[in-house]
Each structure stands twice: as C-alpha cells, then as structure tokens.
Amino acid sequence: MANKKKVIVTGFEPFGDHAVNSSWVAVQELAQLGLGEGVDLSVHEMPVEYQAVQGLLPSLWKKHQPQLAVHVGVSGLATTVTLEQCGHNKGYKRLDNCSFCPASHCCMENGPDCINSVLDMDTVCKRVNDSNIGVNVSVSKDAGRYLCDYTYYTSLFLGHGCSAFVHVPPLGKPYSSQDLGRALQAIIQEMLNLLQLNPADKEHNHKHQQ
C-alpha cells in the first residue's frame, strides 16, 4: 500500500527495581497486534542511559522520518496508563544505568524549558476511555525528570512536537501485558486520527510553553 504512515514506538530496558520493564513488554505486545494495514510500525528498545538516548534518537528520526514517535516508559507510581503532554529540559539529577547524569542537568543547553506535543492528550484520553477497552487512561504534565522525560523532550525537539510519551504501570499492577499492548494500540490509533484531522503546521509545532 502506498503512502503508509510511519510510526516508531520505543520501550525501555530493565533498570533499578524493574527487572522486567513493562514498557518494553507492552511495546512487544503492540508489535504483535500492529496498527493496521496503513501503518508501518517500527519498535526499538531504548537503553536507560542519557548519552545513548542522545545518540540513538536523532538516528531513529533521520532513518525512519516517522509521522509520529511514541515513547513508552514504566512508572512504579502509575496505576493507569498515563499520557504525558510535555517534556522538560531541566532537572536531570538521577544517575542512569551507567551511573552517569548530565553535568548541566538538562537535555539541551539554551533549549526551551518545556516542549508540548502537538497532540492534545486530553482528547486522546477521552476517546480511549470512551471506547471502554478495559484499561484506564489519564493525562499528566510531569514525566518525572529521568530517562522518560529526557527521551520525550529530545524527541519532541527533533520531531517538531510530533511525539508522544505513555507511562505504563508495572506488569500486574493492575494490567497484564496483553492489556497494555491493547491500550497502546488504541491510544496510538487515536493519535494518528488526530494528526490526520489537523496536520500540524510548523508554526503550531513551535508553540513552546514557558
């Protein structure tokens, strides 16, 4: 089929107490389900390392030139599947899997403090919850100032806002891997529907929240 939409979805490797990272498990479930005939889906496991993310993300954006990049991470505090509206530039003080953290504690010197996704996460959330898929979805504006937030900000910058971040709870708290895969599928399909309705023009993309 011509003109397939390209979507990249990433999950993270294990770290800290998360010997199995539910984000990567959920992304693998999604890969099994797919996003339908019209979508070329590419999935990648991300290292929990600041410098690796800095190297990997630009090459993923350049190689695939996706319409949308969706990054998935685990949150031990989450009990719902959580859509993050924005990524933050500053406040990165936690050490990564290599015991490293950026000396500047930020993603990008002189970058805006916060970059919003072009997607309205409240709309995506409402549509998915209305479809009764058996998984609760909520919206957040704080992705946590660790590798999740760092990845999201970097990807929003590279993709002019055509990026999304989804936090999932650990497996079984309360959802199974199948539940999470189904939720990701529904969420990303709604995101693609929204992008189709209002193709983001570059001006809109650069609306940064200070």
Concise structural overview:
By secondary structure, the protein is α/β, with parallel strands linked by helices. The chain is 35% helix and 21% strand.
Describe this structure in words.
This protein is an alpha/beta fold and 210 residues long. The chain has a single domain, classed as Aminopeptidase, CATH 3.40.630.20. 35% of the residues lie in helices and 21% in strands. The protein contains 6 helices and 9 strands; from the N terminus they run βαβαββββαβαβααβ. It has helices spanning 22-33, 50-64, 121-130, 147-158, 177-197, 202-205, and strands at residues 5-12, 39-46, 68-74, 81-84, 86-88, 114-116, 137-140, 163-168, 208-209. The strands form 2 sheets. A 6-stranded mixed beta sheet has the order 2-1-3-8-4-7, sandwiched between helices. A 3-stranded antiparallel beta sheet has the order 5-6-9, with helices on one face. Helix 1 packs across helix 5 (177-197), helix 2 (50-64) packs parallel to helix 4 and helix 3 (121-130) crosses helix 5. The relative contact order is 0.22. Mean pLDDT is 93; it is low at 201-210.
